[in-house]
Amino acid sequence: MNKAKQLGFSLIELIFVIAIIGVMASLGVSYYQHRAENTKLQKVAIQMQQYLQAALAYYGDNNCWPSTKTPTFSQYLPINATQDPWGGKISGTQRNTHIFTVTDAAPNNRIAIRVAALLPNAQANKTTVLAEVTVPIGNQTPGYSIFVTAGQYSFNSSLPVNFSCPANYTGQMIAGICEFKTSANGGDHKHVSVGGTCSPQGNNAWQCTPAIGDNYHISNISVNYTIFCTPNKKTVTNNF
Questions:
Q1: What is the set of domains in the chain, with CATH numbers?
Q2: How far apart are CA 47 and CA 129, in angstroms?
């Protein structure tokens, strides 16, 4: 007599199928997590780059870097540009008068290294990502402005700056108010004039002196200045 055919799967077959499904599910979850992490890395890198570009734009308009005391800087930033994907805050600070630094705290050092790799002039310090940008003042190519130095001066502390320019170049200074405090009598930084005068000293030497005007209402003021050499305009001589 023939034995009846056995219907269904054996226990071993069921275990084998379940194991395959488990492996596929784990691979799918791992792939999703990897994609999600890459998306966050790219997002925070874009946000930090936008922050740096906004700082450069602010510097171009005001000749100084933004700070926590310059609320108008928010107008230069895209919406939600300072909120990173991990719930932290992207922030920026002036490292010195010609370098601005943007930082963000990553969940761990591995992620910080990966974010820094997506940005120019960036590095990872443990779990912190640091990216920098410098003052965009010309270069050493003939016909372009040459950056000389940058600094900061305060109320009643204007000191002359001595430097040299190449032949057929003129020394110039630009200045902008970064921080100020008003006295009890009030005062408005819009009515405060800042700048400087530059004069030749002979043998391609120059001297520039920063100055603050209309400061009788200002008790404390901080001004950034940048000194550079600009090429003289060529004069064309017609021979008849």
A1: 12-134 (3.30.1690), 146-231 (2.60.40)
A2: 12
Any idea of the CA torsion for 149, 154, 158, 159, to the nearest 10 degrees?
Answer: -50
For the record, the structure tokens of 114 come out as 């990966």
- Amino acid making up residue 89: K
* Cβ-based burial of 232 (10 A; exposed 0-12, middle 13-18, buried ≥19): exposed
Q: Provide the CA 105 distance to its chain's centre, in angstroms.
A: 16
The angle at the Cα of 169, spanning 163 to 171, to the nearest 5 degrees, equals: 40
pTM for the model stands at 0.60
Residue given tokens 């100055």 in the structure block = 211
| Whole-angstrom distance, CA of residue 163 vs CA of residue 203 | 11
Amino acid making up residue 56: L
225 within 8 A of 210, measured Cβ to Cβ = yes
Q: Rounded to an integer, what distance in angstroms lies between the CA atom of residue 225 and that of residue 161?
A: 11
Q: Which tens digits make up the pLDDT trace of 15-65? A: 777 878 777 777 666 666 667 788 889 999 999 999 999 998 888 777 778
The dihedral built from the CA positions of residue 110, 112, 114 and 117, taken in this order, carries a sign that is: negative
d(CA 102, CA 122) in angstroms, rounded, equals: 9
